[in-house]
Structures
1.
Amino acid sequence: MDILKQYESQTKFLVAIDSIIFGFDGESLKLLLVKRGIENEKDTWSLMGGWVQEKESLEAAASRVLYELTNLKDIYLEQLHTYGDPQRDPVQRTFSVAYFALINVEDYTQALSSAYEARWFSLDELPTFLFDHSMMVSQAIEHLRYKASQHPIGFELLPEKFTIPQLQKLYEAIFGAELDKRNFSRKLLSTKLLIKLDEKQRGFSKKGAYFYKIDEEKYQKQFNTFLNFLPGGSV
Amino acid sequence: MDILKQYESQTKFLVAIDSIIFGFDGESLKLLLVKRGIENEKDTWSLMGGWVQEKESLEAAASRVLYELTNLKDIYLEQLHTYGDPQRDPVQRTFSVAYFALINVEDYTQALSSAYEARWFSLDELPTFLFDHSMMVSQAIEHLRYKASQHPIGFELLPEKFTIPQLQKLYEAIFGAELDKRNFSRKLLSTKLLIKLDEKQRGFSKKGAYFYKIDEEKYQKQFNTFLNFLPGGSV
DNA sequence: CCAAAAGTGTTCAACATACACCCATGA
DNA sequence: TCATGGGTGTATGTTGAACACTTTTGG
């Protein structure tokens, strides 16, 4: 049997991507979900997803779908896992490649496209999901904790300028634990990844906290360094 | 447009799995590769792979393909990444889900099925690969280092009974670095995951090293604990 | 008896943790 | 002036790294 026939004799499948989109509003971690348009599923919320097109790579499909929803480009995007259980989609067998996205809530609010109805949900008020989406979400949360405990990934969820107390709130939300501000800021500053700005945050606290920005160059270089942000040591 | 039509209007694709199979022979890390049967690719070696069947989950496909090659079941298997570049397979667009397998070389030698021609290759004598397989291999090696640095995964590559010097050789092969035997054995024994047996290894060294086996129950429980096996702290 | 690998203990430095006080400012 | 959150330093215990000698036994 020649090669082409070997290929042709195989079953083909639908391939989709689904995005687990995290945001942080200063208080708690959120997921961005969209309202499903399908008639008998009105009022159900779902992960944003889409089909992979004929000549499109997986990364391109994930970026495109995210762009369609948020109007944002150059988002932190990471492939997580592929789900392919024969029963996972009752309509027709579909493989879904889950992508993990971190975006800054402020950017999204500004760039909002109205093609989809979307809303941020706190992790503790998530709706019931279709298919295996709840598994995707819990694996994504686990991955976020794991990753954040080891890499300085948190910055992706914050605006360009941020304060140390904001960053601490974020890490507390990710780990679901309170952190000591003295130890936290020491550990953080020891990475030398932050550049202190002259400007202070106004309006939130009386004293005002200094803004910092990330040292992009060092951030790229040190990304694969273990940093061990985490109280305890287990995830 | 109804749901079924939405599904039907989408392009379908071939879905395959490819396995990156690691083994350890006491000296160096190895990959198990198979000879390709295709005429004009004789004498080329490739990762073991296979198509995903119509009613088969990804995990099932990966286990089946591994079983066909090695006759082994209950292998350590982990999904790594999905590759889907439109150009990756020149014959026809195929998505490939890469799986990472750890097996014990001795088990394989005993269980050898002859349906495929297969051979172990040291990491430093790997052949040139087709498609994006060399990327899969390097990402798998990276993942093995990462995982082994944090989880006691090394046991999967050794026989049931093993000595501490064997385990040290394995970790040295994984990290490509020499380790201090005093520190290594202290760190290892402090996990309490090993059970010392009465028996000694004979024939290799004059004094003979004690065999150990793993405490399966604790191993399962502690699997998600960070153990920080690694000289330095970066991968 | 000697060569080769196994096995074990101590010291020092680095890091994580716990903890308390002063500072700046808006109201 | 006072209440609120921001910012910093120190002492202690734990952990990782570096390092050398004794033990066992096959040849």
2.
Amino acid sequence: MGKLDINKKKKRDSLLNTAFGMFTTKGVSQTSISEIVERAGVAKGTFYLYFKDKYDIKNKLISHKSSQLFKNAIDEMHKHPKLSFQDGIIFIIDNIINQLNDNKSLLTFISKNLSWGIFKNALTSPENEDDYNFKNVYETMINDSPKKLKDPEIMLFMIVELVSSTIYSAILYNEPVKLEILKPYLYNTVKTIITEHEID
Amino acid sequence: MGKLDINKKKKRDSLLNTAFGMFTTKGVSQTSISEIVERAGVAKGTFYLYFKDKYDIKNKLISHKSSQLFKNAIDEMHKHPKLSFQDGIIFIIDNIINQLNDNKSLLTFISKNLSWGIFKNALTSPENEDDYNFKNVYETMINDSPKKLKDPEIMLFMIVELVSSTIYSAILYNEPVKLEILKPYLYNTVKTIITEHEID
Amino acid sequence: MGKLDINKKKKRDSLLNTAFGMFTTKGVSQTSISEIVERAGVAKGTFYLYFKDKYDIKNKLISHKSSQLFKNAIDEMHKHPKLSFQDGIIFIIDNIINQLNDNKSLLTFISKNLSWGIFKNALTSPENEDDYNFKNVYETMINDSPKKLKDPEIMLFMIVELVSSTIYSAILYNEPVKLEILKPYLYNTVKTIITEHEID
Amino acid sequence: MGKLDINKKKKRDSLLNTAFGMFTTKGVSQTSISEIVERAGVAKGTFYLYFKDKYDIKNKLISHKSSQLFKNAIDEMHKHPKLSFQDGIIFIIDNIINQLNDNKSLLTFISKNLSWGIFKNALTSPENEDDYNFKNVYETMINDSPKKLKDPEIMLFMIVELVSSTIYSAILYNEPVKLEILKPYLYNTVKTIITEHEID
DNA sequence: TATGAATGAGGGTTCATTCAT
DNA sequence: CATGAATGAACCCTCATTCAT
């Protein structure tokens, strides 16, 4: 990679990082491109060399950040082989929840902007070369399990939606209860959902 | 109510109705106050006599509209006495889901702007005199049931979050499956959540 | 006219006058709305209360200014009754040429932006109440003349185009000769054009 | 011409051709240098190696294209020797009008950007080696004619201005009449102008 | 000669809010 | 109470031009 390419990546990264910082602090709609470039220390025109508009950079961030959450969780899970399918799922969920609990601004950003569509896309067609294809991991986990599953996609969908919408309120506002209290209820429910989808 | 008061209410209602129409059609951020007042047929300044800003009118609409969803559902439920607690909850959920399925723009509007905080507030401190206090209804249902519940608020929270986040994607995008297919899975899960919270 | 209406007219007129000054000095494309409002002493938003964009104000100015040229010329002509048709036309042309010779910036502005379409429209559908309908004047002149004309519109078109395109260069650049030298040739040619269109 | 020189000429020609295409299609002010270089397949900086700015390339195009119009007309005229002076002028005019009628975008481009100054310059100091010096041709025509002319430059000026301004409107908008109807009137007037300038 | 990433001034336009009427 | 003309900050985006490579 030449000196020029390195410089290009620097600018682009600076914009991404700055935008992420502002999106998580002030929200997407309250963040202007003017402010992003100012804080990133690049000229206004430079923004448009790399991104089409604010929503382009937002989507690229969402995809990348949620991919990374899963990547971290899966990397960690692989250090504990021999987990059952159910325990594997719970492990991943717990790991991601903990990451988000430690990074509340990331939680806000993702919750407010994630839809099942973007999410699925992010996990199956990672943009960045070091992102994972979670779908493959999920399928491997299912195949490695002795028990078979009915409608694994619906199951995943219900789990993802249940988890993401409940933890948002618990982590950020301790509503209706704080996270540590919610967790056992939540994992219990997740396990029930999985059990229901298992074919004997 | 004097003639003047009636006229006042007229302007305010006109603003509310117009704003609701535009919020559901074009989204909140794409709707300007200028456009609301123009279509409502009142002067710009008049808006500020009744609402602080765009977000004030938005929140008032959210509260009112979600209260009405529950009111409709509960009114309908009362026509079927003798429902068990579990069946009552499912009845309400199903009724609300059907209302939203018939009114997709309302679904979009509410989903994009509802938080557990606003929601709880809307159901316990109804703004409008003909809105209900759902909390009372819920407690009555619990008390009327022979079985006792552990942590009914957490349970309600989990149910509300699960339902609201899953149906959004199913109704609007048929993702991961369309509503009719999702429903049995969803109601099954809801029943499991309730069962888990029952004290023997 | 109320105080408010007077104030409104003041703002609008201020914008028109300022824009005219800048269009004639720097040309339309080199003039920005930002600069117009700044010099007119009004806020940027005010511009958009009265005009759609720069081309809206430009066309309104062109129409009005060319109407006024004709109005002045015709008013002056009416002080000399008994002129023959040919002499009347020459009188009007000469008067307008002199007005433009005295106001070179107006000449530049009109020449660069006038098309036969806009011109015809300006003279037949005056925007301003004190502008004239030149078409009526022209027809009256024709009817009052003992000689009849073949294709009076084509004739007028040729005269207008010949005169307007030649004087531009003569007045502003003395090219190919200065105005006073061009005039006799020009009027001679105009008279010939008229003569050619007369029916014996 | 070396290989390098040929390559140089290629880039320059590519820029000229692309610019011409865009100027005639979208107009000068709507065409950006960025777009020209992109379509021409050269780098941004390269543009500035050959042209000062957009107006430089525009003027060079105007000169060249109007020279070519005359060159074509004169070449064609030379195939018909023995034409009288008057008929020769009419022949050239008619030929150029027909070229422009067949190429309306060229007409628009030239009309909107031609001034007598640029025009005279283009015809007397051709930039390109294969362009003509029309002035010489004109003078030869005059000298070959038995009749002598008074003020031939003014005469030419009047003819050029009359023709160019009238055909623009007739060809593009059929205003006030379409070209074929205008032609006889126009050529009649041109002949009258010439006759008037002849010295008996 | 040739490149094209970077610049940043400047463009047009919108709109929440105010306040004299 | 009601009006709506006026404001002007802030927005997004374009583009001619430069300069290190």
